[in-house]
Amino acid sequence: MPHTERSHQRHKLHIYILFVPAIVFVIFSLFTTLNHIYCGIIAMFFGGLATLYCRPDLKGKIWVGGILFTILYFIYFGSILPFYPQYVELYWNLDNLTHILVLGIPIEELLFAFTFGMYWSGLYEHLYWRKLIKSKEMSTN
Questions:
Q1: 104: Cβ–Cβ under 8 A, 6 or more apart, which residues?
Q2: Entry pTM
Q3: 111: which residues sit within 8 A by CB, 6+ positions away?
Q4: CB neighbours of 18 closer than 8 A, spacing ≥ 6?
Q5: Mind listing the pLDDT tens digit for each residue in 71-114?
Q6: Residue 65 class from Cβ within 10 Å (0-12 exposed, 13-18 middle, 19+ buried)?
């Protein structure tokens, strides 16, 4: 990240941006009738976008993180279904969801995994960006 970019005004928002998913979730939960899984999906998506605003250099990492986490979640969830084929019907209230299943996995679970992966993938660098920059500057001197 160039020095001019590091001094940009948006970097003063790092700590606040970490709370975007929680704030969006509370707002959507209190003021809409959406199912909480949809509130969570929207909240994590906004968290990923907020991280992207604050750290545009993490654009690739955010999207790849979302895809990789979705793949891992799909493999994990898919490994349960052969042993417990009625797992989704027993533990998910499909009447409150879209009824869209991808190889037996509710689409809402995969969307949540994607948006969580978006947010989570840049979280470390988002939290510790000042330490990372200082250590890089010290190693170049």
A1: 78, 81, 85, 88
A2: 0.79
A3: 41
A4: 123, 126, 127
A5: 999 999 889 989 988 888 888 888 888 889 898 889 999 999 99
A6: buried
